[in-house]
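Last lecture ended with a question: if I hand you only a sequence, what can you say about the shape of the protein? Today we answer it with a concrete record. The protein is GLPGLI family protein. Below, first the input exactly as provided, then the predicted structure, then a couple of comments.
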Amino acid sequence: MKTKRCLLLVILLLGFGSAFSQSLTGRAFYKASNQIMIRIDSADMSPEEIAQAHEIMKKPWQRDFVLSFTQTESNWQQLPSMEQGTAPQSGEGMSVSLSGQEDDLLYKDLAQQSYIQEQEFMGRDFLIRDVLAVEDWQMGEETKQIGDYTAQKATYFKVIDSRRFSTGMAEMEAVKDTIRVTVWYTPEIPVAHGPENYFGLPGLILEVHNGGRSFYCEKIELNPSAEPVQIRVPKKGRTMDSGEFRAMQEESIRQLQGQYQGKPGGKNGRKVSIGG
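The predicted structure:
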């Protein structure tokens, strides 16, 4: 199945070999919306604190991103924002920090089916190099209009690793979730790119709906002459693959949890950080 999907991607890229698509470059501007859903389970929290935490988590945050692309390469980066992405702090000292760095850069190379991503974690810079996951897209027949473009529907199911932690637990609990990913792409822009690590369809992906996380394309610039598209390859940070980076993150979080639980009066001033 994987071989067939890889072959399909190669055929897809070769099929875009017309004079138009070979010279096609552009920028697509997206609004990202994330509805955070977590389960809070702590005997150390009062009902009022739990209710307030749930209200904070229900509030969606939004950020702006730009996808710069050529036929086979792309950059994905957050646009500068005045907002800090931190939810209001409660009177009991609880706050939620939605981490994310505007300088982080994601580079995708569809010809090589690989990506390189700059990622800041706990004040250190990392360079993640790995292969792109080829998804088992199910092509739908539904269409809708998104701006000036007719978009078609495609879906796949994804099993994700989730983590749950509460104050009464010694360490984070690993759980599995299956989510349905729905996207809308337009063959009228014949590139196989999309936001974040989404790719592999016969047209630019304009919308993504992934659980509580969504991307909406709001503006597209094709072959901009005033400011031509230039693709950058990230080079800053300690190099590792995605598995090594995940393991390093989990170990760092475990160490922080141990330090937190060992402090007297650790029940107060709780802070939940969620990577975004």
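Comments.
1. The chain has four helices and 14 strands.
2. The first strand starts at residue 26 and ends at 34.
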